[in-house]
Amino acid sequence: MAHIAQDSLATIYFTFTWKSSHASHIENYLARNVSFTRDILPVGVKSRMRGLGEGDSVQMTLDPSEVPAFKPGKILDMPIARFQPNELDMRPRIGRYYPKYFIASVPGTRPDSTTPFRVVNVDRGGFKADLNHPMAGREVTMKAKVIEITDKSSAKGVLNRWPDIFFSGPGMQVRLLDSPTDFLGNEPFKREDEAGDADFYANPHRIHHLDNQARHNVQTAYGHLLTDGMDILDLMAGQTSHLPSALKPRSMTGLGLNKREMEDNTALTANSVHNLNEDPKLPFADNSFDAIISTGGIEYLTKPFEIFDEAARVLRPGGMFIVVFSNQWFQPKVVHIWRELLDFERMGLVSQYFIRSGEYEGITTYSDRGWSSSDAAKGEDGTPSSDPIYAVWATKR
């Protein structure tokens, strides 16, 4: 069996865990073609992984130097005139992230910089812009598992700065300590197509928004969270529930808009046609389910607060509500706020749904990125990149 040497090339699955004031966070990243000769990895990783074989792993707390430092001097007071968005009706909202080119005349920013900054306060005359990295000052634990060791690396090729790649996005799901994020301005739940959902979904949409690898990653996530013997509700169900084949629930109920799609779903033991945007009340008794799952549906809800309250009502105490999504959707029916947010901000929005309800605890956010897939579009390195997976879950108090 091959072992990692100084000139090895390897595929490594990294898992980063960290905490914020309101949630726990898990970030997964499959790093392909990691060169132990040229690439930059967190301090101590190369030395600790040398000699490991496929399937072996190491775990460590990242050195503080590997996580961006928090600098108070990067929080700047700005007049409203400095906020120059690409949409005329957009204004700075507390807790939200925007690309730095919105304030391109500020020292340390460039006109083409898409790096995010955060609005941490707003008043009549201006706002405070936090230019610190979203992960600034976090304490992060890392696990690195060797998936594959391939041919020896040469000195040629692209130098990958893996810490920059790992931490591009994470952190934006966290809200400020003293204020919820302002997600609710500018008609957040308006949609391009406000016609009846029943008409839009009258015919089956027998397509997969996610590529094969992403669907497998969803199954893996559910496999870690769900157990045999559960009564499970699939909210906004369709032709598949993305459960691992080995899972044996006691019952599996689907609630969706198209009966034919749900009848194609072999995991379901019962189904119910119901439009949550017209009537958010779930047609089930209190304490009916051990778990509720929703895959690729949260972005269409126009009454999410009522539905999260209803989910808590039909869950048994300690039951789990798991919300999974990616960056693919039906454009006419997705709500405005969802399109406006960055990927990791969307986990912050879903977390806020849980928090606002007051019926949940143990909020966890989860991301899984970096995979390749034979049926996905090619990424920047020319390799087909699988759809990223994001999830937020919590348990009923």
Q: Quick summary of this structure?
A:
The chain has eight helices and 15 strands. The chain has 397 residues and is an alpha/beta fold.
- DSSP strand content: 25-35%
Count every beta strand, where a strand is a DSSP E run of 2 or more residues: 15
User: What CATH architecture label of the largest domain applies?
Assistant: 3-Layer(aba) Sandwich
Distance between the termini: 48 Å
Question: What would you call the shape?
Answer: globular
Any idea what the CATH superfamily of the largest domain is called?
Answer: Vaccinia Virus protein VP39
Which CATH class of the largest domain is shown?
Alpha Beta
* Total helical segments: 8
Order of helices and strands: EEHEEEEEEHHHEEHEEHEHHEE
Domain Methyltransferase type: 256-323
Keywords: Methyltransferase, Transferase
GO molecular function: peptidyl-prolyl cis-trans isomerase activity; S-adenosylmethionine-dependent methyltransferase activity
Organism: Pseudodesulfovibrio piezophilus (strain DSM 21447 / JCM 15486 / C1TLV30)
Produce the secondary structure layout.
Elements: E1 9-19, E2 24-35, H1 45-49, E3 57-61, E4 75-79, E5 97-99, E6 116-122, E7 126-130, E8 141-150, H2 162-166, H3 197-200, H4 212-225, E9 231-235, E10 251-256, H5 259-264, E11 270-273, E12 289-295, H6 304-314, E13 315-325, H7 336-340, H8 343-357, E14 360-369, E15 389-396
Parallel strand pairs: 2-14, 9-10, 9-12, 10-11, 12-13
Antiparallel strand pairs: 1-2, 1-8, 3-8, 4-7, 5-6, 6-7, 13-15, 14-15
Helix pairs in contact: 6-8
Domain Methyltransferase type: 256-323
Protein name: Methyltransferase type 11
GO biological process, one term: methylation
